[in-house]
Automatic annotation (TrEMBL):
NCBIfam families: HAD-SF-IA-v1 (TIGR01549), HAD-SF-IA-v3 (TIGR01509). InterPro entries: HAD-like_hydrolase_sf, HAD-like_sf, HAD-SF_hydro_IA, HAD_2, HAD_sf, PGP-like_dom2. One of its GO terms (biological process) is DNA repair. It holds the Pfam family HAD_2. PANTHER family: PHOSPHOGLYCOLATE PHOSPHATASE (PTHR43434:SF1). The lineage of its organism: Bacteria, Pseudomonadati, Bacteroidota, Sphingobacteriia, Sphingobacteriales. It is an enzyme of class 3 (hydrolase). It catalyses: 2-phosphoglycolate + H2O = glycolate + phosphate. Its EC number is 3.1.3.18. This is phosphoglycolate phosphatase. GO terms for cellular component: cytosol.
């Protein structure tokens, strides 16, 4: 194996509370019910537009309302102090070990690209990722394999030489759709059973366990 592609939210970074707090603030601003933090574990994973859609009441999920709240959410989230976001325990030593061992490492996230870059720069300033991609206009979101296939092309790596690491069914489906090895992590936002049902070829419970696989 030469390349390990990581999901971001729920895999490298615990972003749940800042995402939930931001979404609740926007829902409250526009007069919609808010949600407990635990609900956001199921709302996230498919990009910010889907997050807004899932958080809204069913009768309010019109295109105009979603677009309005999406714009407000992005502005709020980008200006909000990242008071709760942090790398999961063991992630920094893992990334440092992988780089020192000669592996290529990259990020492929459904979070919109303009939010991914500052998070990576802020929380991983000493890690030289070989490629960082968030969701961009004109590109399909995961579980479409586009972002993984683009990464493979850009870094000139064959599918059989790549692991994809993530915490949700979306990630496992993405890996399998791209025909790369899927590794599910249990410290993120979803349950182990979901990862197995969606084709995880390996399950790990702590970042250091990845070293034994690669």
């Amino acid at each position: 194996m030469k390349l390990i592609i990581f999901d971001l939210d729920g895999t490298l970074l615990d972003t749940l509370q800042d995402l939930g707090d931001s979404c609740n603030a926007i829902l409250q601003r526009y007069g919609y019910p808010t949600h407990p933090l635990s609900a956001y574990k199921k709302f996230v994973g498919n990009g910010v537009q889907k997050l807004i859609e899932r958080a809204l009441p069913e009768d309010a999920r019109s295109e105009n309302i979603i677009t309005t709240l999406l714009t407000a959410f992005k502005a709020y989230y980008e200006q909000k102090p990242v008071s709760h976001t942090k790398p999961y325990t063991g992630i920094m030593p893992l990334l440092e070990e992988l780089k020192s061992s000669g592996y290529l490492i990259s990020v492929a996230s459904n979070k919109y690209h303009e939010a991914v870059i500052p998070l990576i720069e802020h929380y991983f300033p000493t890690i030289a990722f070989d490629l960082v991609l968030g969701h961009r206009t004109g590109h399909p979101a995961k579980p479409d394999p586009d972002i993984v296939l683009e990464t493979l092309r850009t870094l000139s790596i064959a599918k059989e030489n790549c692991y994809y690491v993530g915490d949700s069914s979306v990630d496992m489906d993405t890996a399998n759709n791209a025909a790369v090895t899927a590794i599910g992590v249990t410290w993120g936002f979803r349950e182990e059973n979901e990862l197995r049902q969606h084709g995880a070829q390996h399950i790990i419970h702590h970042p250091q366990e990845l070293s034994a696989i690669v």
